[in-house]
Design brief:
Chain B: InterPro entries: 2Fe-2S-bd, 2Fe-2S-bd_dom_sf, 2Fe-2S_ferredoxin-like_sf, 2Fe-2S_ferredoxin-type, 2Fe2S_fd_BS, Beta-grasp_dom_sf, Diverse_Oxidoreductases. The complex is a heterodimer. Chain A has helices at 14-26, 38-45, 81-87, 91-97, 103-108, 111-116, 126-130, 148-151, 171-174, 220-226, 233-242, 256-275; strands spanning 7-9, 32-34, 53-56, 66-69, 72-76, 134-139, 142-147, 152-153, 155-156, 163-170, 178-184, 192-201, 204-210, 217-218. Chain A is of the alpha+beta class. Chain B contains five helices and five strands, in the order ββαβββαααα. In chain B, α2 (84-91) packs across α5 (137-150). The chains are: A alpha+beta, B alpha+beta. Chains A and B meet through β1, α2 and α5 of A and β4 of B. The structure holds flavin-adenine dinucleotide and FE2/S2 (inorganic) cluster (2 copies).
Chain lengths: 280, 151
């Protein structure tokens, strides 16, 4: 139960949702888009989130799309993580999201909600960063299709009143060799320490990481270091570690030093899995 | 719009209830519908004590607004009538204090319905969503496997 009241709207079209947001915003209702809704429900209960108007986008047809058409896979933002896993149209995404929360919670948590969440893990974005996916966004200025690597800078840079409708991914990335791993501090459930997703395309390794910094990221500098074949694996990994974005997280899940130690070993695993190179 | 009168399809019955938008399904089941089988634990999606079944899938009822459940088929522990998993819990002593039991049973029941031939990996993946403070895990595993084997 949430300690405050709000109005609840279920727009059936994208336009209706955009118009509602603007109206409600003008009335000072602090409207909030709601997909799986787990963020508002869990943070609202302890007064860390507040709204007077919830706009539930789950009924909008475009947000529920899941199909391969031409050479793209289209995934709607309100698909639950379980539906994505069950359909398994993008194996790297299946593997990465299957580590978010737990199985029952993933029946509720959605793709768009995870990508846009306040929590810093947001692992669902990693495969799309690797696959140079495009996002369909709608807002007061109409529809926009933007490369995810352009608009996702630490978070999805949405303007007020905009929401994520779909993510489109070229099928060539979907069949590419991949690697995905989540390390927790202990046990097999609970929040991650570090999650890493990797993909190999055109003989180059790409990596995207969550849980290392206070945001998920993919870094060209890190990838350039890892793919510098003139050097030994150790030297490539050391260089990659030196160019990681900052700050490195330091929290109850693990110190910065421990995170970098775990990361180094994960990078060794990635190189072994995707490049066939091992350190003796 | 802050309060809604809605019809819910619950355990095969249509029930009309007036709720706040801000009520979770768990609040409505327990506070408005007199169905106290789903248990409040963490209220944060972590423990699974509140698990019910919505359209065939397990759902933590503390993570769903009751208004989101309109048009969906809800089954709570009260709606299971001598389901094989209930009997299996008794036969295998799969509980001690019993607080986590309705949630575990609803999750196991959904698993058996969706994956009648679930393998160990699937069983583990699904059941990790629930916590038993009395650590009856081995007995719960035996119970669910005994039903799956019969399939
Ligand atoms: C038990 C449990 C375990 C969890 N474990 C993890 C974990 O391992 N990793 C992790 O990353 N998170 C975890 N979380 C947090 C959870 O992932 C986030 O709360 C969740 O991803 C949000 O998804 P949702 O669909 O419920 O989003 P919502 O709550 O609907 O939305 C989240 C935020 O994004 C906005 N939003 C939603 N959809 C859109 C859209 N289409 N366009 C623009 N903005 C939008 C909302 O306004 C809100 O601010 C966990 C949560 C629970 C309850
Ligand atoms: S009370 Fe719902 S998961 Fe704990
Ligand atoms: S039997 Fe006591 S919590 Fe599970």
């Amino acid at each position: 139960m949430l300690p405050f009241n709000f109005d609840y709207y279920t727009p059936k079209t994208m336009k209706e949702a955009v118009d509602l947001y603007q109206d409600l915003d003008q009335q000072g209702k602090q409207p909030m888009f709601f997909s799986g809704g787990t963020e508002l429900i869990t943070l609202g209960r302890i007064n860390l989130a507040y709204t007077e108007a919830v706009i539930d986008i789950k009924d909008i047809a475009e947000c529920k799309v899941m199909q391969v058409s031409g050479d793209h896979l289209f995934l709607g933002s309100s698909l639950s993580l379980t539906r994505i896993e069950e359909a398994n149209l993008f194996p790297l995404l299946t593997k990465t999201v299957s580590e978010v929360a737990d199985h029952t919670a993933r029946v509720k948590i959605t793709l768009g909600g995870n990508i846009c969440a306040q929590i810093f893990y947001r692992e669902a974005v990693l495969p799309f960063l690797l696959a140079d996916s495009q996002v369909l966004i709608i807002g007061p200025d109409g529809e926009k299709i933007i490369p995810i690597n352009e608009i996702f800078q630490e978070q999805l840079r949405l303007k007020k009143g905009e929401f994520l409708v779909q993510v489109a991914t070229e099928t060539q990335f979907i069949g590419a060799p991949y690697f995905s791993v989540k390390r927790r501090q202990q046990w097999e459930t609970g929040y991650p320490l570090i999650t890493m997703a990797a993909l190999k395309i055109d003989r180059e390794i790409r990596v995207a990481i969550s849980g290392l910094c206070p945001f998920p990221f993919r870094s060209k500098e890190v990838e350039a270091s890892l793919n510098n074949r003139g050097q030994s694996v150790e030297a490539r990994i050391d260089r990659a570690l030196a160019v990681m974005p900052t700050p490195i997280l330091e929290d109850v899940e693990g110190s910065a030093k421990y995170r970098l130690f775990v990361l180094k070993n994960l990078l060794l695993d990635v190189m072994a899995a995707l490049d066939g190179v091992r350190v003796r | 719009m802050k309060s809604h009168t809605i019809m819910l399809d619950i355990n095969g019955d249509s029930r009309i209830v007036t709720v706040r938008s801000a009520d979770t399904l768990l609040n409505a089941l327990r506070g408005k519908l007199g169905l106290t089988g789903a248990k409040p634990g963490c209220l944060n999606g972590d423990c699974g004590a509140c698990t019910v079944n919505v359209d065939g899938w397990p759902m933590k009822s503390c993570l769903m607004l009751v208004v989101e459940a309109v048009g969906k088929k809800i089954t709570s522990i009260e709606g299971l009538k001598q389901a094989p998993i209930q009997q299996a819990f008794i036969e295998n002593f799969a509980f001690q204090c019993g607080y986590c039991t309705p949630g575990f049973i609803m999750n196991c029941h959904s698993l058996i319905e969706q994956y009648p031939d679930a393998d160990d990996t699937t069983i583990k993946e699904w059941l990790e969503s629930n916590i038993c403070r009395c650590t009856s895990y081995i007995e719960i595993e035996k119970a669910v496997k005994s039903v799956l084997k019969r399939n």
